[in-house]
């Protein structure tokens, strides 16, 4: 079975849109998401545009702040502080990567944790590790929703996560652990990767190596979540970290690229923005 992230994302967004319509009557305004883009990296621009489109679909107010690549770290932080203080803004997101002269951690830490819709601020990361309420990162949240939707049993099963980034690998491993999976985290230094992936009931691949996972590296019935997205140098088409054509026949469920995890990340971003807004309004 191919899990359509697109279809599930549509369901999640329709749910949000219904809530926004009634909250708008109750609280007098809609949620407001502010997305900051520094510079004009083409892939980042595409992501930012998709986030704006999704915000419009669910009925949010949406501001896109396009800042020049030459902006100083302090100027960017000052801008974020302004947005933190603006009671009419519920969610703030700074698109990554940032230009080299800007320290990413300084910028992330400048965002009010209550408006950190990406879930990257150390308060929210701390909340994840301590199983406390907080904002969970969008891609990991989307992956769990996809597994649940597909009826994949997590508890007691072996989940292998390839990749250990703060955006995907680390947090998804923790969410799977909290759902009582036995979790192995593999990465670029892991030896004999196939010996490990062949033991996976659930395989999450988020390492950014096109077609790394081939049919001989998975067991029959595995649930495969492919977070990778890059251009195949031969065909120029988008490709995931999983060789879809060879792995799909062995998998019980698998996510396509594109149309898998990507749309769910954005749907969860909308969910996080709505949560920031309702927490504020219901305070
Ligand atoms: N760049 C790649 N993925 C992400 C993400 O989830 N959030 C932000 N802000 N930037 C990204």
Could you walk me through the main structural features you see in this protein, from its secondary elements to its overall organization?
This protein has 283 residues and is α/β, with parallel strands linked by helices. It folds into two domains: 28-113, Leucine Dehydrogenase, chain A, domain 1 (Rossmann fold, 3-Layer(aba) Sandwich); 138-261, NAD(P)-binding Rossmann-like Domain (Rossmann fold), CATH 3.40.50. Helix content is 42%, strand content 15%. It contains ten helices and ten strands. The strands form three sheets. The chain has a five-stranded parallel sheet. A three-stranded parallel sheet has the order 2-1-3, sandwiched between helices. The protein has a two-stranded antiparallel ribbon with strand order 8-9. The longest helix is centred in the N-terminal third of the chain and has 23 residues, at 5-27. The mean pLDDT is 97. Guanine binds next to strand 3.
